[in-house]
Amino acid sequence: MRAVFDKILWGTLILLFGPTVMIVASWNSLPGETLYGVKLTMERAMAVIASPSYASSGALSIKYTERRYAETKQLLASRQSIEGLPYLQQQIADTKKMIDNAPDKAAQVALARQYINTLSSVSTDLEVQKQAVTTASPQNPQTPQIPQTPPTNPPTATPSPKPTNTPTQTPTPTPARSNGVAAAISRSTPTNTPTPTSTPTETPTNTPIPTQKSQFATAAPISTGQAVAALQINEAQQDVSRTIADLQAIVEKDDKEQGDKREKQKKEEKDKKDEKDRKESKDLEEKSK
C-alpha cells in the first residue's frame, strides 16, 4: 500500500513539475520566443481571476501595458526589433475598451486618470527609442568614397627658335653686246629677304595646376530596417496619443459635471442662507411693531 501511495505521489509531482518549470521559464520570455504564448496565457488566466473586482482587473490591465512596453523597449534596445510593438498596441486597445465599459462613472474616471499617466510615460519613452533606432549605426554601412584627383606634372618650357635674316643671292641677267658675242655675265646681287619663321609663344614655367579638395558632410546612412522600425514606432505613438485624448475627454467631462454640481450646490446653499436672512429680518420687523 505504501509503495502504491509513493508512486502516486511521485507521479503527481512529476506531472506538476513540468508545467511549473515552463511557467517560471516563460515569465521572462519576449515576443518571438517559444514560451511567450505560455506567458500570455497565464496573464489572461490571472485577468479572469481578477475580473469580479473592476479596480483589481483595471490595475492589472495597466500593469500588463507597462509589461508590454518593457518587452518592446528591450527588443528595440538589444536587437532593434519591433516584434513587441503589436502586442503593446493590442494591450492599449484592450485596456481602453475595459475603461469604456466601466460599471460606474467614478471607477471609470479614476482608472482613466491612472492610465493617462502611464501612457504619457510610454509616449515619452517611445520617442526616445525612435531617436535611438534612427541614429544607431547600421550593421553594414556603405560610406561613399570621394575619389582623389592625382597631382599633375607641370609642363616644361620648350624654347622657341629665334627669327634669323638669311641673305639669298639671285642672278641678274645682262644685255648682250653689239659685237654679237653673246656673253652671259652672271652677277650676284645680295638681297635681304627675311624668311618667315614661327612666332614664339610664351609658356608659363613652374606653374602648378591648382587641385580642389572638396569635403562633403554626409549624413549617416539609415538602413531599411531602421526606417521600418521608425514608422512602426510612430504608428504606436499615434495610437497612444489617440487613447490619451479619449481618456482626457472622459476626465474633462467628469470635471465639468463635478464643477457644475459644486456650483449648483453653492447656489442652493446661498439661496437657503438668503431665505433664512429674510425670515429673520421679517421676524425682527414684526417684533419691533
Question: Your description of this structure?
Answer:
- The protein has 289 residues and is mainly alpha-helical.
- Helix content is 62%, strand content 3%.
- The chain has helices at 2-26, 36-50, 54-79, 85-100, 105-135, 224-288; strands spanning 168-172, 187-191.
- It has a two-stranded antiparallel sheet with strand order 1-2.
- Helix 3 packs antiparallel against helix 4.
- The protein starts with a helix and ends with a helix.
Descriptors:
single chain, 289 residues, mainly alpha, two-stranded antiparallel sheet, 6 helices, elongated
Determine the N-to-C terminus distance: 107 Å
Biggest sheet record? 2 strands, antiparallel
Which band does the percent of strand residues land in? under 5%
Give the oligomeric state of the chains in this entry, treating copies of one chain as homo and distinct chains as hetero: single chain
Mean pLDDT: 74
Read across the widest sheet, the strand sequence of neighbours is 1-2
| CA gyration radius, whole angstroms | 51 Å
State the helical fraction: 55-70%
The H/E string reads: HHHHHEEH
What sort of overall outline do the alpha carbons produce when their principal axes are compared? elongated
**Structural category:** mainly alpha
Number-wise, the strands total 2
Give the secondary structure arrangement, pairings included.
Elements: H1 2-26, H2 36-50, H3 54-79, H4 85-100, H5 105-135, E1 168-172, E2 187-191, H6 224-288
Antiparallel strand pairs: 1-2
Helix pairs in contact: 2-3, 3-4, 3-5, 4-6, 5-6
